[in-house]
Every structure is written in C-alpha cells, then in structure tokens.
Amino acid sequence: MIRARIISTGSYVPPRVLTNAELEKMVDTSDEWIISRSGIRERRIVERDVATSDLATQAALKALEMAGMSAEELDFIITGTNSPDMFFPCTSCFLQSKIGAKKAAGFDILAGCTSFIHTLSLADKFIKENPKRKVMVLGAEIMSKITDWKDRGTCVLFGDGAGAVILTGEEGDRGILSTHLHSDGSLWELLYMPGGGSANPSSHETIDRNLHCIKMAGNQLFKVAVRALAEVSQEALDFNGLKSGDIDFMIPHQANTRIIEAAAKMISFPMDKVYLNIERFGNTSSATIPIALDEMNRSGKLKTGNLILMCSFGTGITWGGAVIRW
C-alpha cells in the first residue's frame, strides 16, 4: 500500500517572549489565574513588521533542510492559517515566492485551529493520486495581531508561530493511516472575528467597535472542545482498529491544558503520553500541532513505527483527528 509519509519537519517561533508577569501589567489578571485556567506561562509575539508568511518561510526552510530537498522539488504548498498576510493573495503564494518553489501550486486552508489536520488530509489525497508528489503543509499564525489586548479572557491565550512538514508517497505501513474532519456551523458564535469580511467590511465603525479582534465564549467553547477532541480521537482509533494503549503519543491542539486533560480522560488516554508545549508557546492556533511534532522529531522522541494520534478543534466550529505511523 502507498501511504503519504512525513519525511521532514520544521518550525519557527519569534524570539520575543511575552510572560504572564508582563500581562499582569496590561490587564486585570495574574500569573496564577492564567496558569490555573490554561496552563500557559509565556507565549511568543512577533514585531510589528513581521507577516505570517515570514514565520512560515523560516519553518519551511528548516523542513526543506531536514529533507535534503530544494524548494523547486515541491509540487504543492498548503498553508493552514486564520491570520493570513492578506485576504488575497493567499499566504501560500507569498511563501512559494519567498522560498523559490517555482513549480508548486499553493493555496490556503481556513478551518480554524483544525486547519493543519485539513492540510494533512489534502496532502494524503494528493499523494495517493500520485505517490511521487512532494507536498509541504504548514500551520502558520500571527494571532497577536488579531488579539484584543484589553480582553483578559482571550489575550492571555494566544501566541505566534509556524510549523511545516513535507510528505511524499512510500510503500509500506508508515505514514498517514487516516484523517477525520467535522464541522458544525451553528456554533460559530463561540469563537469568531466579526470584522473585515463581507458581513462587516472594514470601516471606522468596525474599528471603533473593535470588531477586528477575536471574540470567544470561553465557558461554552470549553465543553464543546472537550467533547469534540474526545469523540474524534475515539473515531480515529476505532477506524484503525486501535485502542488507547496502542498509541505511543497524542499530539493535541494546544489550546488549554484543562481541555486536553478532560478529553484524554474521556478516552482513557494517559497524560504521560500526551505531548504538551502550551506552557511555553500558548495557543498558536493551526500551528500548535506541527510545532509540537517538530519539537518531538528533533529531540529524538519519535521512533520508527510509533503510532501518533493528532486531534484538534477550532472556530467554525471545526474539529478533526489523524493517526500516523512514524
């Protein structure tokens, strides 16, 4: 059987660290409150003149270096992002130009924090059509530029960063075993950014009303997120005839430690096999899973044959999962 296998990873986070202590000076919050509610101690924030494609470029170059490839060998670039450089052109086209991937078709996926799972699913299908294809998929975000820094319920959560992987076709058991995608548009008001689109085009009024920043109903979203992560994880396990004990690592979307712990408990998955880096990076939206994957890969945690369960949820509401044999 031909499978789409990840052959390299790369990630990048900006150098500037924003700590909880600094946030205490900006809004009515505390280090203790942030850690107890989210598990976050610090996050990375870009400077004003940095764009999402700039972060994506650094992650992409690292993935290319690990693969021993040139950018001109890529056939597709698919970027999952909720914070593109512009509405159009797509961030993938900016990235294609910056790395010199002259023959790659590029486009973006906007599916909330689940976007990276969507990029993996598309890469899987492109490679099954033609196993010789080389596909780069990314999650890249600058959440700090769409965050309301006066809203203590959201500004403590988000950070900036990018992660990339390169996939190609290979015979055998290694690679993507399955992906599982879902959405429920009736729940869109749990997490959204109302300003800037055709519903609320940019104007003095939308700026005055602060509509160009993240809006979130945290308590309601918490319950939906726990259920979504648990259900899609169980779906992915069942589809592949696996039990929780068969999985070597879970890499969940790094949104909130309490959400992850509650979801893991629902499927009887041990937390010592769950990879967490939210303490250092916060919620980087679609970039959380590929950043975590790159950290695990470069640190030597991942071994050939390891079974990895990925799961995510995000605005839409969307949620998704994947099982990969490393």
Report what the structure shows.
With 326 residues, the protein is of the alpha/beta class. It has two domains: 2-172, Thiolase/Chalcone synthase (Peroxisomal Thiolase, Chain A, domain 1, 3-Layer(aba) Sandwich); 177-325, 3-Layer(aba) Sandwich (Peroxisomal Thiolase, Chain A, domain 1). It is 33% helix and 25% strand. The protein contains ten helices and 13 strands. The strands form four sheets. It has a five-stranded mixed sheet, sandwiched between helices. The protein has a four-stranded mixed sheet with strand order 8-13-12-11, with helices on both faces. It has a two-stranded antiparallel sheet with strand order 2-3. The longest helix is centred in the last third of the chain and has 22 residues, at 218-239.
What would you call the structural class?
A: alpha/beta
What is the domain total for the residues? 2
The sequence of SSEs as H and E is: EEHHEHEHEHEEEEHEHEHHHEE
CATH class of the largest domain: Alpha Beta
How many beta-strand elements? 13
Largest sheet, strands/sense/barrel: 5 strands, mixed
Multimeric state of these chains? single chain
Strand order of the largest sheet: 1-7-6-4-5
Mean pLDDT over the residues: 98
Helix content: 25-40%
| Number of distinct helices | 10
The global form is globular
CATH superfamily of the largest domain: Thiolase/Chalcone synthase
Measured on Cα atoms, how large is the radius of gyration?
19 Å
The CATH architecture name of the largest domain reads 3-Layer(aba) Sandwich
Q: Low-confidence segments, ≥5 residues, pLDDT <50?
A: none
The CATH topology annotation of the largest domain reads as Peroxisomal Thiolase, Chain A, domain 1
Distance between the termini: 15 Å
The fraction of residues assigned to DSSP E strands is: 15-25%
